[in-house]
Amino acid sequence: MNESDKDFGNKAKATFDASVEELDAATLSRLNRSRHAALAGLQQPARRWSHWAPATGVAAALLIAVVVTQIPSIDDDAVPAAVTDMEILLGEDSIEMLEELEFYSWLTVADLDNDVG
Amino acid sequence: MEVGTAVFAVSCSDTPLTGARALQKQQQLNRFLAEVERRALRIAEIAVRDRDEALDLVQEAMIKLVRNYSERSDDEWTPLFYRILQNGVRDWHRRQAVRNRVMVWFRRKPAEGDDYDPISTAPDPAGRSPDEQLQNSQAMQSLETAVHELPARQREAFMLRTFEGLDVAGTAKAMGCSQGSVKTHYSRAVHTLRDRLEEHGP
What is d(CA B183, CA B193) in angstroms, rounded to the nearest whole number? Predict the structure, then answer.
């Protein structure tokens, strides 16, 4: 790495640090709350995600069936995409995604109502 | 699971810490997280281009670090924390890809204003003249956009080395790759960014 690369890195670092210093009070407050929430977990036993495994598995399987079989116009990389979807849907966040699906469904109906109205 | 994850084997414990040891550990972790959280937020924000999502990712990384790695020595926390955060960012991008496919299914057209607007979310500067504010804001916007457009691994290497100040070994641990790969990714990132930002800074 030459001197001009180092100089560029120093300038980029200074610019970045300035943006960090300019974070607003609301954001800093949220970071503070997040930190304390995380530290509260230090005195609690680790969450056993396995308690949710059966429900998550069933829900994920249903969603996978919908995603893999119903989405139209899956192109050349259909198989890798389906595999990637499966990995994600089997993750811990699948419940959150299912909850959001209800919202998207509601949103679609609301949009249709607006279009009609 | 990324290659190299085994470097940091999970050390989950179901036994809560108690007494003076717990208090000491809590204070150490508090100092560490307070020191790193703002830079981590900006790094995550550059990667996902959404402050709320970045805040969630940082909180998740904090929780995982505390739950799984609090017993590690404190000099391991920085690369571990960024390893968790980078994995969170990658998972976020994957989830976004899935959501986009699901949205196609529901045929919802994105509303105007759904797009990220860097100007509206630009930080509110304080204590500088208007010219200085504008100059710095424009420089950061240019840098942020250019960094965001880098390939993911180059972006990670550049942000961890330059913004967080990790050395090559720490960056390699955080990225789960060899030190040689870090050097390659970082060098390519710097040259790409210099070319793109030649006229606009930083």
Answer: 15
ipTM value for the complex: 0.74
Q: Which residues 13-52 of chain A have a CB within 8 Å of chain B? A: 13-16, 18-20, 22-24, 27-28, 30-31, 34-35, 37-39, 41-47
Are B107 and B24 within one domain? yes
Indicate if B107 and B133 belong to the same structural domain. Answer: no
Residue B170 placed within a domain? yes
Q: Do A18 and B140 touch (CB under 8 A)?
A: yes
- Tell me if B27 is assigned to some domain: yes
A–B interface: beta-carbon pairs under 8 A: 160
Q: What are the tens digits of pLDDT across the range A78-101?
A: 555 655 566 655 565 555 555 566
Cβ proximity of A56 and A88 under 8 Å: no
Is B4 among the domain residues? no
**Token pair belonging to B79:** 């690369």
Domain extent at residue B175: 129-202
